[in-house]
Structure formats: structure tokens, C-alpha cells
Amino acid sequence: MVYAEDTRPVRQGEELEVNKLERFLREKLEIPSGDMQIRQFGAGHSNLTYELSVGEEWKVVLRRPPMGPVAPKAHDMEREFKVLQSLHPIYPLAPKPYLYESGNLIGRPFFLMERREGLVFDSTYPEGVDATEELGRQLSETMVDRLAELHSLDYRETSLKDMVKPEGFMERQVHGWIKRYEKARTDDVVSGERLKKWLIDHIPASRGAAIIHYDYKLNNAMFSKDNPSQMVGLFDWEMTTVGDPMADVGAAMSYWIQKDDPELLKTGLGKPPLTVQEGFYTRDEFIHRYAEKSGRNVEGINFYLTFAYFKLAGIVQQIYYRYKKGQTKDPRFAEMHVFVNHLIRHAEETAGL
Predict the structure, then answer these.
(1) 114-129: string of b/e by CB count within 10 Å (b at 16+)?
(2) For residue 4, is pLDDT > 60?
(3) What stretches of the chain adopt beta strand conformation (E)?
(4) Is the pLDDT score of 89 beyond 80?
(5) Measured between alpha carbons, how far is 87 from 234 in angstroms, rounded to an integer?
(6) Is pLDDT of 111 > 50?
(7) Distance between CA atoms of 234 and 116, rounded to whole angstroms?
């Protein structure tokens, strides 16, 4: 059997009960005869994502929360399932969701969605792709344009309007992520007091509301095998909400590493992403094109980027907290406190502290 390059054998300790799951799914879905195989997507650091397949003709993706206790309101599978239900009809890059299960079957909630096929650009070019500066530029343009398109959608015409509260978004974000960081803080990471005060003191006035992905980065997108600059899928909608679109741009830029960034920023989550390669936009170029495509005023992006680095520190710290408490044994998480401390320092520098 030929497996897609973006999956791998399931990590030890993160297995699913194949027979129990297969019996349940065969009662709910039309699945061809044959043995069900389960592989795991390996790139993520948070929710666990699996490929379920029967031969080559039936494939779906299963998402579930990580092992061990999780932070309140985090890893909400039902919410992400409903977000996909709302978005897929108007933004087809969002995969079609199939079913949600509340946790009675495998002990944790999960949902199924369609399996997209294509190229994922992570830290290296996929095999067979002609790595050119021109492709880097085209991928950069595509990333900007699809983000601007998402922000142009009217959330009031979707069921998202009943799930969100755009008023006071940035205030809740700043105070909420400060609280989450403090709750997950361990004795080997800094408190970031100066940074937290600066963020609270500089919360900008609302700039309107849009649907925001809030985890928008190159390896969360999938591109066509026939035309590698064409996006064919966008994943990880867990953080999606309706809020200040500049917060989404800031979050995207916290992941958009460029070649002259500090080494720890480049390697904090593993190998540097492809965005450090020749041809890819710098953050300034990304933001400039976003302003052109969206028509939005991007003044004040410095606050959103500072907050995004702090928010990323909070996300990484929550993962490290679970590792330090023995709730996960994934060795990739062992040194994440070093990255958290660096993100706090980098956020302070971005703020001019």
C-alpha cells in the first residue's frame, strides 16, 4: 500500500481502538468492505489527527483532543465541527465535516471530516516539486490572498453569528491569554510581567469584525499537486472565531519566519519553515500585500504581532505544561520552555521594551 507522505504510523500511547471505532463508523457511514487502517498526521503539536482508510477508495480524517487533561474551553471538538459546518459551504477550502461523537466511544470527543489530497509545504519542498524563488513568491501571494478572502466573508450570513461575540474581542483575548499563560506557567519560564502590562495598556480600539482562522500558517494549508501555488485545503480551525482581522494577520506573522530572524525563533518548533527560503515574502511584504488585497488599514500591526508572540508563548507553554506533568511523553515537547522564554523576550523586543 502507498501511504501519503503527510502521515506516519501512530505514535505509541496515542493509538485508537480500531475494531471499536470501525464497528461504530460502519453503522453511521457507507464504508466499502476491507480492513480499516489508521495512520497519524505527524506535524501538529496539539490536537491529534489521524487518517482512517479502507483501501484507496475511502479515506477520512479523525480529530480528537490530546492525551491527558486539557485546559478549559481548549480542544473543543464540537465547536470546531460546527465551525466547519458553517464555513465549508461558503469557503470550500475548509474540509467538509461528516460526524461528531461526544466522547462515549473512545473516551474523548472526536469528529470526522473529508480527506484532502495535495502538497503540504512545511520545512522542505515535497519530493518532485521544483523549488524555485518564483514558487516561493507565488505561495506567499496565495497565502495572503486566501486570508484576505476569508476576512471578506460576512459571518452574519452563517451560523457563526450564534457562536461568537465580536464586541470586546481584543480585550478578552489579551486578558484571557494572560490568564492562560499564568495558569500553565512552570518554574522554568519567565513571568513576563512587563510584557503583560504593556499589552493591557495598548489594547487597540475595535477595527470591525471578520471570520478569522487564527492559526493561519503555511503547513496548515494544502496545495495542488498539478499547480503547487493553488491552495486546495486549509486545516486546523480550532481557534477560528469572529474578531479583529488584524489579530489574524498578527498570528499569521508570528508563524511566518523569515531568513534574518533569530535562530531560536527559526527552530523553536523544529526545523525552520520554508518561508525562510529565497523567494518567500518577508513579513513586511506579506502585510503590504494584505493591505492592498483587503483594503484594511494595517497601522498598528506592531501591537498585534507583539500579542501574537505572547499568545504563541501561551500555546507552547500549555503544551510544555502537559509534558512536564507527565500527561504526554512526546519527546518533541521536552525543551519547549526554552522556546517559551525566547518568545517572551522576542515579544518584548517587538513592543520596544
Answers:
(1) ebbebbbbbbebbeee
(2) no
(3) 7-8, 37-41, 48-54, 58-64, 97-101, 110-114, 210-212, 221-223, 231-234, 241-243
(4) yes
(5) 11
(6) yes
(7) 9
